């Protein structure tokens, strides 16, 4: 496995936090500030340690941006980062606080227990292709669009090296909603679109199994094309949980689930979905694969409280931007919304 980045949870958490601090110390751009701030808000301990530096950095970046705009100078930042930073300034740093979480239980022992997050910064992320209604199982890779080979993303790489026989990069998730949340990109220079092949399915299976042996709760998630993947450059999302996701344990669940313990059998099911033009979300973990087929994005109107249903939402964890939604959403609301995604 080479310099395997998933050796233990303690090692991963330490490298994760150290990398954020080093990034903030070594780079002063808007994008780095947004990334470090959003990740710190996921962890109260990180937030406590980095908050003073982040407050000073936001004031300095705001002052520099204001000076540029007053002089008619074009801000030296990607448009996505600029728009997010301006929204952070509108919110006000003093109003930012760590992500809040609560559980939403249903009636009866078989009902899933939903997990809600009050995570307003997550809602600031650019939608990219997740808002588009797409057809088929893939679209061509667009070198002019957003992808993980963009030079300005190089500083956001947490780890790079050989992983299960392939070159790979692990980037910080700029708008995280899961513990130790990363973006794992295999063979990034091949510029592969977001469409699984038998080879890459097997690779993800091997990486997830090895990661879970070292770190209990380590999981790779995947959004297919048409299932709220926001970037059309082949990638998985890595995270670590101390408890299973609701979709992994609940008996009464509104979406169909298929579980696989053999990599070849799982591929046959994925290939059938590809042949039929179906969309799906995946969870690769210690016990194999959980497949959640669903209707593709754009077919069902979004709930007013949702920005989309990707792997986290179909698995029962809901980042919410509005406090009223966070406090007022009912178990039945969530159950019905997921039920409408049934194929």
Structural description of this entry:
The protein is α+β, with helices and mostly antiparallel strands and 343 residues long. The chain has a single domain (9-339), classed as HIT family, subunit A (2-Layer Sandwich), CATH 3.30.428. Helices cover 36% and strands 18% of the residues. The chain has ten helices and eleven strands. The protein has helices at residues 9-26, 30-40, 44-70, 79-91, 198-214, 246-249, 263-276, 311-314, 323-328, 331-339, and strands spanning 100-104, 114-118, 157-163, 166-172, 182-186, 218-223, 236-240, 258-260, 279-285, 288-294, 317-320. Strands 3-4-5-7-6-9-10-8 form an eight-stranded antiparallel beta sheet. Strands 1-2-11 form a three-stranded mixed beta sheet. The radius of gyration is 20 Å and the shape is globular. The mean pLDDT is 94.
Topology:
Elements: H1 9-26, H2 30-40, H3 44-70, H4 79-91, E1 100-104, E2 114-118, E3 157-163, E4 166-172, E5 182-186, H5 198-214, E6 218-223, E7 236-240, H6 246-249, E8 258-260, H7 263-276, E9 279-285, E10 288-294, H8 311-314, E11 317-320, H9 323-328, H10 331-339
Parallel strand pairs: 2-11
Antiparallel strand pairs: 1-2, 3-4, 4-5, 5-7, 6-7, 6-9, 8-10, 9-10
Provide a compact summary of the structure.
With 343 residues, the chain is α+β, with helices and mostly antiparallel strands. The chain has helices at 9-26, 30-40, 44-70, 79-91, 198-214, 246-249, 263-276, 311-314, 323-328, 331-339, and strands at 100-104, 114-118, 157-163, 166-172, 182-186, 218-223, 236-240, 258-260, 279-285, 288-294, 317-320.
